Amino acid sequence: MSISASEKPLSKVFTSDYRFAIPAFQRSYSWHNAQMKQLIEDVMDACAVHDGPYFLGSLILVHDEHGMHQVIDGQQRLVSLSIIFSVLLTLEDDQQLNASLAGLLTEAGDKLRGIETEPRLRLREQDEEFFREYVQHGDLEALFDLRDTDIATQAQRNIQVNTRCAYDILASMADDERRQFASYLVNDVMFVIVTTDDISGAYRIFDVMNMRGMPLTPSDVFKAKVVSGISSAARTVYARYWDDIMEPMGDENARIERFFADLDLIFTRTPICESLIVDFTDHVLDKYIRKGQCIEFIDDVLRPYAICDEILRRPGESLLPREVIGLLAGLADYPYDDWKPVALWSLVHTLNNLNDPDTVVFARSGRGGARVSLHDSDRLVQILTALDRVTGIDCLNGKSELDRRTRAATIVRDLNKGMPLQRIAGFSVSGDEQRLAMLHLRGELSIDAGMRRLLLIRANEQLAGERITRPRSLNAVPIIPERVSPGSQFASWPAGACDYWAQRIGNFVLTQKAPRYLDGVDDFDARRNLIVHNVSSQRFPLTRTLRDLETITPQFLQLRQKQIIDLIAQAWHIDYEDVIIAEQQAMVEARAVGADHRSKRTSKRVSVAEVVRAGLLKPGERFVWNRPRKHETWTITVAETGFLGEDGTEYATPTAAARAVGGASVSLNVWKRESDGRALSDIWKAYRAMM
Fold first, then answer.
1. Which residues on adjacent β-strands are paired with residue 624?
2. Backbone angles phi, psi at 246, to 5 degrees
3. Which of 202, 158, 211 is nearest to 59 (CA)?
4. Strands (E), 49-165
5. pTM for the whole thing?
6. How open is the CA angle 24-56-192, to the nearest 5 degrees?
7. What percent of the chain has pLDDT over 70?
8. What is the mean pLDDT of residues 509-536?
9. Phi/psi class of residue 251: alpha, beta or left (left: φ > 0; alpha: ψ in -120 to 50)?
10. Contact, 579 vs 566, CB < 8 A?
């Protein structure tokens, strides 16, 4: 068995030197938008600092007899990077950069050198065509147009979700900033590539690199540094004491790392640790070690903050006041935990007797002693309420991890100074931030299921006037089914109405019923009965209103949408009227200078009606799909709100029209305008560029 290892930038990885293939026995692409967002933000942060290459880990490959490089370890990163390249290509209008980006996705071929045209990366058979058509060929408009029912596998859903995520982040950047990011990504992001010709040997390498032994956690490293600074008489006692303090975190390395990263932010006001062990040692520990205060670090820092971290993990079991428990439980609803440093600081500086080993913090502690108490519960409630507001608005507006943690650092800094809450800059939300939040709430929500669930929880609790206990399983499910059969009540709605409401918050409702139980159920009565079946689901007033609803209309969803938005605006103290006035004023000013008022460019699904209103399509125009191999030609005609098929059926989206005649979801490129041969995908892309 021969083994070679080398360090290479992505510009040398995505070339004809490597023909990557995912073996059939490998798991499918499983990254979610959280991992995609983290990858992009990490590279963005490294690009901003630009103090050297960014190491992305290792690829373990088997070079087989066909010249392919079978990917044993690295599939998730290779697929995600390909998605990022495709998004950068779609957003770029410089022809030379376009050619460079396209070359990272597909080998153009060279007859003279005997190189065939082929994709750089081949996925498993189930997902290969999907990935090639939509990502590697750059047909993102068609990908964004797909409904969930158009997608065959979970890996394909992950590809669509992560492409949307990457597009929304990268489209928000200025052209120069995005090109700088692309250059850093291609030239300074590095892989260590380990190649062998033996698959069993590759797995042994993978095992050694990833599975053997138990790597030291940051806690182990910091414990060794601190305990070594304690006198020999007390060293053993405090080593055991450290272990007891950290025991609730177990061996969850991610949780331990996050805990110390939060401590670093609290003590240094630095949002992100470039290297946790080095940064925390230099910024925090060394001061205690130099002053001979290692015991004080354990007693006054580690123990209080570790206890409060456990309170944040299970607030319902703590002995805190009910209002505080409710606020902490609400913060735990968020898909991100960048609020934790502020909550940790607030608890540590509000709770009494945390240093006393006999203080009882949890109801199920099983021992006696004094109960934990608060010395300023009103201020703690005010801090947590303000924290929930800014966290919600930041998450809704898609703020990056760096932005969210920078806000947390400024809040902790000002809290340390004892400033009144109204003077703490981190707790303020600008008019532009409020306006953007309302634009998101009122439009199609390109957010994950967790955030959609949180919005509905906040709206329901605002309506109820109290915190509502969450059942163990709680989901945000759509009222309108993904696919509507001819016999469904929804089939009688105006063309495009179901499509319009599909991703809007008014169409979603909280239920204990798992989404899979509603798959294929397109009758409203049956869906309603499943949604409200569990008594736990009926705890939520906005769910309860469906219980006695006999029929549903677009007008009902419109009223429901407005009610939910109003409730969320009340919960987060968004000055709704001021936002609407500012919007109207901005539209007047835009028209005065001859510009249209548009929202920021995102991956939201584009409707036919929007493109018609923009003047890029005209009612009566015809689009043709020629299928020479099948000797078929299909024609659709543009209407005000959709496409008319040859039989008069109206389709709200081009994908729906293609699926109806072709039996499957296909590229928007298949539809060519009869008058000039322009593909629908180009028209959709032109409209998105206008947003």
1. 635, 672
2. -85, -5
3. 202
4. 54-63, 69-73, 106-107, 118-119, 121-122
5. 0.67
6. 75
7. 90
8. 89
9. alpha
10. no
